[in-house]
């Protein structure tokens, strides 16, 4: 840890982050999250943030702009379908009688089953839905879609360029690829410091995705930053593990909470909130 006295909250956060790194120095990688703990932690994490609402409103606006005809959506890394069900319900209710095809892909069977159940609970005759249990690069999706979206799932794919190309190939001409992914801001500095490596790579963030679009020669129509906040002061240990994408050891919980406190800003109710931004990348299949 630095022995220079911090002079601002940014300096304090930097010193506290160094402290977190110092606890880890020379140690074996932390354990990752099992899929069920990941899904539980994620659901509870979203309850403390306004980000999902902002993403849902933003993507619903984009869907509205795609006309009144039949529409098809592929959600890659759909999780439990909480976000997708909201978007699918908007599509069905927005234009009564319009055929809506909504497909989810997720490597964890528990999430794919919840996605299927959530979609079916909408009880909409005009909605046809399927769920594939597989990582995106192994999925056997053969249809084409008006929209292919990755909401907070691009972190995990092994090869960003290959993933973007396959995703574009699943679009009809004029269809759109949407990638919502976080930048390496204050919160994800903890992921960089603490999350164990995935199979052969670290987690990707916005800058990696933007570079992959450029390297693949895929023109970006739009990049939108949504400014969200999350209340991690009241986070359970399970939510904290999800936030850092690792199973924290007891000696790390105090330093991690102190860092999160240092990077917090006052929310509209005056309580501390951690900035929780997300970027949305948009490309069109020409
Ligand atoms: C943070 S969750 C996002 C879930 C959902 N899109 C949402 O916004 O609520 C990330 C999801 O990506 C899935 N995932 C992980 N690796 C993946 C891969 N290689 N291909 C597709 N999905 C993956 C996880 O199982 C998890 O459900």
TrEMBL record:
<dbReference type="InterPro" id="IPR029063">
    <property type="entry name" value="SAM-dependent_MTases_sf"/>
</dbReference>
<keyword id="KW-0808">Transferase</keyword>
<dbReference type="GO" id="GO:0008168">
    <property type="term" value="F:methyltransferase activity"/>
</dbReference>
<dbReference type="GO" id="GO:0032259">
    <property type="term" value="P:methylation"/>
</dbReference>
<dbReference type="Pfam" id="PF13489">
    <property type="entry name" value="Methyltransf_23"/>
</dbReference>
<protein>
    <submittedName>
        <fullName>Methyltransferase domain-containing protein</fullName>
    </submittedName>
</protein>
<keyword id="KW-0489">Methyltransferase</keyword>
